[in-house]
Amino acid sequence: QPVLTQPPSASGTPGQRVTISCSGSNSNIGSNIVNWYQQLPGTAPKVLIYSNDQRPSGVPNRFSGSSSGTSASLAISGLQSDDEADYYCAAWDDSLNGYVFGTGTKVTVL
Amino acid sequence: EVQLVQSGGGLVQPGRSLRISCAASGFTFSDYEMNWVRQAPGKGLEWVSYISSKSTTRYYADSVKGRFTISRDNADSSLYLQMNSLRVEDTGIYYCAREVYDSSGSHFAHWGQGSLVTVSS
């Protein structure tokens, strides 16, 4: 069962800013870095943000991440239609000795 | 170019076994930790297992511990997941993922295309 909690959905009109939260605990987000993955429909996930706030090459700077305490967040500014996807946070959990993913957030562009 | 090409999925009856594979290319496979992540139909991502670069350390999710075994062949640049005593709830797409480390931690930088495993009678 996922141990990182995300809102099931988020939406906005083109150009708007959307923020997705990820809530964990001391054993995961509170102790380790957070990564964010984007999964477009019918495709494998891809890393969007790593080490809390780093963007891999090729990821637009419209995407940004932050982490504080036992929570993290992903922000998408200048929302575009091809940002419609599922977004997952993830972190290592020291208590479980394994990775944990968030429950996932479906972003819809209205 | 990093490539992870998966094979071996299919339909299997509950209680039976199945092995899926992940063939790596475009990087020095023996230098990297690898993982399996799965996704049940219409559900979110679930981490399944981890193996260190030299196979000295392996971790499993509680949901598969004792039934699944992760392994690798560095000479062949291949990753495997042996799944025994399969259950209906093991149905889903299984992804292999290459783990990359930096000064802060690690992330799954590259993913395979996925292997569909269906457990049904």
Number of helices of chain A: 0
Oligomer: heterodimer
What share of the residues of chain B lie within helices? under 10%
Considering residues with a beta carbon less than 8 A from a beta carbon on another chain, report the largest interface and each chain's count: A-B, 28 and 23 residues
Descriptive notes:
The complex is a heterodimer of chains A (110) and B (121). With 110 residues, chain A is mainly beta. Chain A has no helices and nine strands. In chain A, strands 1, 3, 4, 7, 8 and 9 form a six-stranded mixed sheet that branches. Chain A has a three-stranded antiparallel sheet with strand order 2-6-5, with no helix packed on it. In chain A, 39% of the residues are buried. The model of chain A has no long low-confidence stretch (mean pLDDT 96). Chain B has no helices and eleven strands. Chain B has 121 residues and is an all-beta fold. The mean pLDDT of chain B is 97. Chain B is globular and about 45 Å long. Classes of the chains: A mainly beta (110), B mainly beta (121).
Please specify the SSE layout and strand pairing.
The complex is a heterodimer of chains A (110) and B (121).
Chain A: E1 9-12, E2 18-23, E3 35-39, E4 46-49, E5 63-68, E6 71-76, E7 85-93, E8 98-101, E9 105-109
Parallel strand pairs in A: 1-9
Antiparallel strand pairs in A: 2-6, 3-4, 3-7, 5-6, 7-8, 7-9
Chain B: E1 3-7, E2 10-12, E3 18-25, E4 34-39, E5 45-51, E6 58-60, E7 68-73, E8 78-83, E9 92-101, E10 106-111, E11 115-119
Produce a short descriptive summary.
The complex is a heterodimer of chains A (110) and B (121). Chain A is mainly beta.
